[in-house]
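sanity check this chain:
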Amino acid sequence: MMSKAMSRRQVFFSIGGVAAAGVGMTLMPGLAKASPEEVQKAIKEMIGDTTPQEGKVSLDLPEIAENGNTVPVGVSVDSPMTQDSYVKAVHLMADGNPSPEVITFKFTPQSGRAEASTRMRLAQTQNVVAFAEMSDGSVYRAAQPVKVTIGGCGG
């Protein structure tokens, strides 16, 4: 009769398999990066065919992230946040991650300010880009490179 509980040996083999897969991805960081086509597709899904303009968006990121597992990021958009003129959404993306989409923050005029912060993982040195969708349909962007010394997405 077989026991449903995993034996100690099975647990160690499972952990070893996961660790080996992680080491494999670390040794092949190129496999863990989105292709330029995937990045462009992600941008199109975020903002459609609108051409983003520079300005209004500010990113707060470290120039160098010693550990890509937890990189602080802040974003703010200059907007009056009134019923007639407000930020609808801010999309963050990291073009060197396996999946470039990081997070989307949604706003309304009741938000008061278009500001948000979080932490994200960065697989390698790359650009972090923020796209701000405005209530009038316009889109603004800001980008900042971040040098990552230890990757956080298997790279």
The longest strand covers residues 139-148.
